[in-house]
Amino acid sequence: MARATRRRLLAAAAGAAVVGSAGCLGGDEDAFRQAIGRRRDDRDEIPATSMDALPDLEGDLTVYSGRSKGLVEPLLTHIDDQYDGFDLTVRFADPNALTNQLLEAGADTRADVFYSVHAPGTLGALLEAGLTRPLSSETTDMVEARYRSGADWTGVSGRVRSVPYNTEQLDPGVIPASIYEFPDVERFRDDFGWDPVIPSFQASITAMRVIDGEETTREWLEAMLELNPTAYSGGFSTCKSIADGEVSVGLTNHYHPRRVALSRDDPPLGRGFTRDDPGTVFNVAGSAVLEAADDPALAEAFVRHLLSGEAQEYFAMAQTTEYPVVEAIPPHKSLPSRTELAPPDVDFADLRDLEGTVELLKEYGLI
After folding, report:
1. Residue-averaged pLDDT of the chain
2. Is the CB of residue 298 less than 8 Å from the CB of residue 58?
3. Degrees (nearest 5) of the Cα angle 98, 103, 104?
4. How confident is the model at residue 35, as a pLDDT?
């Protein structure tokens, strides 16, 4: 099969460690979920750099956002509203489509900052093309090194792959501790859901290829397909089907079970995590300052606002309960701590190249 160009690739990519339980996924903090700049009730102040301590934003800035408008627009609007002399323009679109447009436009782009899911793939493509500008230590020092690509781009919030399951149909002990044991569970036959079309699933397969090789990845995919899994358009629809009893277990990002729990009354959803394998790969949404930015200092100051205590607290407490990338901000109480997670040891740079993964998933008819 001919190798796809990066531009074609991005167009195409449209007994476990069960930490947390179904009872911890409910919406007990609905009034707080979308609040920005508010403290959690159990402490006097947000223990990270406040927006008030950052340089004022002044001038015009254009951000291309490959993130959900419903999730991040409240935060971006809040930042915009803090400064009388600041005019923020945000263009929301599919992350792969925006990446392609930025690659095609090069230095002629109107964008100053790119903010996107699956940063290793999207921001990594721009880095590879020489379209990003290095960040200063003032910015990189705000973020744990494991959540950024050196000074090239920085993660803003994180997500980890997880194992949602129907608590009325499955006992947690049935769920294997290793992703590689899933094909051996006969109970999962005709009763398993996943989301191969989304970047996070593809990142986990890329991690599998990097860590354990192409042959092992093929063997796992073939064995999983023997279970006759149901493919869904995303993690939310996967978890909704699990809660409805259409399938009993699946693979999604960690926040999708909670999103379903917030939308209905006490659904039978639990969430587990495998350990130290591609089934629990940690990925980030991130930001990069573009080489073509009209005011690079303003662009980087904006990125620092995304790393502020208020913004990081927002990501931790909003509907998706993402993992903050600033160490001082803990994740939502329904999630395992960063130290309790056991993601595989894989460098973000190794997750940048999705080309082989997309080709592989196409070969098996998964995308």
Report:
1. 88
2. yes
3. 100
4. 52
d(CA 242, CA 248): 5
d(CA 26, CA 30): 9
Residue extents of the structural domains in the chain: 18-25+159-281+353-363, 30-158+283-330
pTM: 0.85
pLDDT the model gives residue 325: 97
What SS3 state is found at 136? coil
Q: Is 122 in contact with 95 (CB distance < 8 Å)?
A: yes
Q: Which CATH number fits domain 18-25+159-281+353-363: 3.40.190.10, 3.40.50.2300, 3.30.1330.10, 3.50.50.60?
A: 3.40.190.10
| CATH class assigned to 30-158+283-330 | alpha beta
Average pLDDT over residues 104-122: 96
Nearest to 218 by CA among 175, 189, 183, 174: 183
Region of 311 please: left (phi>0), alpha (psi -120 to 50) or beta. alpha
